[in-house]
Amino acid sequence: MYEVELKVEADHDEVRRRLTALGADPLGTVEQVDTYYEHPVRDFGETDEAFRVRRETDDEGTETRVTYKGPLVEESSKTREEFETGVEDGETMERMLEELGFEPFEAVEKRRERFACEGYTVTLDTVAGLGEYVEVETEAADIEPAREGAVALMTDLDLDPGEQVRTSYLGLLLESRDE
Amino acid sequence: MYEVELKVEADHDEVRRRLTALGADPLGTVEQVDTYYEHPVRDFGETDEAFRVRRETDDEGTETRVTYKGPLVEESSKTREEFETGVEDGETMERMLEELGFEPFEAVEKRRERFACEGYTVTLDTVAGLGEYVEVETEAADIEPAREGAVALMTDLDLDPGEQVRTSYLGLLLESRDE
Lengths: 179, 179
Known about the structure:
8-stranded antiparallel beta sheet; homodimer; alpha+beta
């Protein structure tokens, strides 16, 4: 399965109104703190991979997940192969990774408000240090039709898929540091 | 906290009788399959570290834990610093590690019958390809008194702490391959 995802920068109030008009189903809000790690010898910036520990907090408490993202397999929709699993104790996992030579190099903090809409997940992200973004995503074995559906839904939400932001929040944060 | 552990090779039937006489409390039996990984660039054989994924199966099902063991900090009792946490999906964790450049190089399979006895855990291990062993272990902030207690308990079990096997099952298996 591939993750197909389109993202644009957009004011959330407008999009929330369109989601309500389309009958979208609110899925709740979470806070996420992602710590990205450097590989002991590989330059993830060059290999286009990412490895992170995510702590997600909702009303029920905090959960930790570890994720590896492979290089892009489909440029236009930012599609990557991804492996992710939950871990019992996030702090221990972080200590272990550091002992193995992985070093934390950037943290991304955001508030995510999710909706289910026409088979897609629409997420309103407020990212610390960056601003407001909207993501439309789904998982699919077949990339192209999933991408076309995401473009159609973006248009229904009065968003312009042509303004797609292909850079990850991590990348945007790193770029903003360089400025 | 440090893990203090003494291990000897010993016939289990004798030890089980002594454990019963000492009023030890049976804690059940599990099967463990440990997969040890090579670091992408560090030689764990030289740095005296280990990194493994353990699948443990009991009556309730299978659980996966990931463990990093640091180099020895106290030679005589095999004491190491250790980080361990449970993971939701062992197979995904293994795929992720392989993508990051970790390669599986040896598997250790054993049946472990555990008892609680005088503040220690006594484990009767039957290790595939090696034979029968007994481990006496505990966790302690203060190494020396914990080690002295382990020696005393070994003696009470009619085992000879002087015959301590300092090599891990992994090391013993690797040695047996070289013979």
